[in-house]
Amino acid sequence: MKKLACLLILCSLNINSQTLKSLQAEADAYQKCLDKGENMKGCAEDYYTLADHHLNTVYKKLMAKLTGAEKLQLKEEQRKWLKKRDNEFKKIHREANEVFDCGYMCQDYLMTVANNEAGFVLERVKVLIKRLEKLK
User: Fold this and answer.
1) Which pTM value belongs to this model?
2) What sign has the CA pseudo-torsion 78, 29, 114, 89?
3) Which of 50, 91, 99, 122 has CA atoms 20 to 30 A from the CA of 19?
4) Rounded Cα distance, 88 and 109, in Å
């Protein structure tokens, strides 16, 4: 729980200022959490939660700055990305199953899945942040 609190504090500090720099600070905090070698699954799950939170926040911020036609375009783009995400997550689970022969009962499996899913989501967050920064 202590790790979650630290990551959530980082998130709340950056809630209105998601930048590539703030994402890197969170990635560094996540790595420190992993480096402790304790509750690494929890570290990865918390990191995924942060990634998902940032995706929603940055998407809403970007939508608020766009015109009607641009909003429709972004909405359609996001729908396509969500389908791509769903397929990527299935692939992540499949690959983790091949490496860890224990599925959902295995801490390493769960950590790997959360880590890889967070990485995929954060790539989208970075794309949206760059677009948002161009509008400022």
Assistant:
1) 0.87
2) positive
3) 91
4) 16
Radius of gyration of the chain (CA): 16
Q: pLDDT by residue (tens digit) across 48-78? A: 999 999 999 999 999 999 999 999 999 999 9
Question: Rounded to 5 degrees, what angle do the CA atoms 84, 85, 88 make?
Answer: 85
**Which residues fall within 8 angstroms of residue 3, CB to CB, at 6 or more apart?**
33, 39, 42, 43, 46
Do residues 4 and 44 make contact, with C-beta atoms less than 8 angstroms apart? Answer: no
Q: What is the pLDDT of residues 100-118, one digit of tens each?
A: 888 677 999 999 999 999 9
Query: For residue 97, how far is the Cα from the chain centroid?
Result: 21
Question: In terms of DSSP H, where are the helices of the chain?
Answer: 2-13, 20-35, 40-65, 68-99, 107-135
Indicate the Cα dihedral angle 115, 121, 46, 37, nearest 10°. Answer: 20
Closest CA to 90 of 111, 120, 66, 49: 120
- Which residue's structure tokens are 């499996």? 109
Tokens of 31: 């790595």
